[in-house]
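Aim 2 progress update. The chain analyzed this quarter is reproduced below.
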Amino acid sequence: MFSKNLAMILSTTLMYSTPLIFTSLGGLFSENAGVVNIGLEGMMTIGAFAGAAAAVMTGNPWIAFLVAGIAGGIFALLHAIATIKFNADHVVSGIAINFLAPGFALFLCRRLFDGSTMTPPMKLTQKMPRPLNGIFPKESFMDIVFNTYATVYIAFALVLLTWFILYKTKLGLRIRAVGEHPKAADTLGINVYKIKYLSVILSGVLAGFGGASMSLAIVSTFRPTLISGQGYIALAAVIFGKWKPQGAMLASLLFGASTGLVVFLGNPSVGFNVSENLLSMVPYLITLIVLILFVGQGNGPAANGQPYEKGER
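Predicted structure tokens:
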């Protein structure tokens, strides 16, 4: 019984960590290029809606997953234009995205699905597949933990890819240079604006993937309260992870584990008699505690959040 309960907690942890991993990796690209992206929450929401709607309409979860990334990227482009071209305050622009994207998702949902605020529930074939289904003995520890959705494995693969890009390629070096000292990068011939735009749009694409991993795998539908602060938790994972891919992944696993524990303890068969409302607070409380204890120790990119004008000294 203990091993089965542990397997259930681990499996739920992996599922709920996945949206945070996708989105925190997006935050890494944006912030390492010097653009604060508070709008990850809104980009996740529009990605969750676009993915669910596309899955219902096309029946193909992979097309839906890509559509979700594109939707997140479009709203990230709006954030990039506001902060890079017009030098708008990064936090204000991000908050605007967090109002605009969910509102637009709700508007489209009502237009496309007969006034409903939710997308229709997906069929099993419209959800993301489980690539390891049938490999392990049914109901075994390995089956419970690893027979999970493809999005989980994609997220962990992207952690490695992100680390490689940021620390082993010229593009990654340029992204970090722009985030640390854009004026110096400019004197070396790096197109600072191009790098910033690319990084912010990529952050939106990854946040869209994070939202889709909720609606296409975990929940199988979109509703307005689906994301409910996951974007902010992902941003906390970026800070707690010290703006590094491996750190963001570990932080996402920590926050995902808190959600996994809540889901497990909320199961009536466990016999843990605590209010569901109190249990639902746990992931957010852990996020606050982590930020209070560790945010002061984090040193982000030096030019993060600072406006840049070409030619200024």
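The two ends are 66 Å apart (CA to CA). The chain has a mean pLDDT of 93. These observations will guide the mutagenesis experiments scheduled for the next reporting period.
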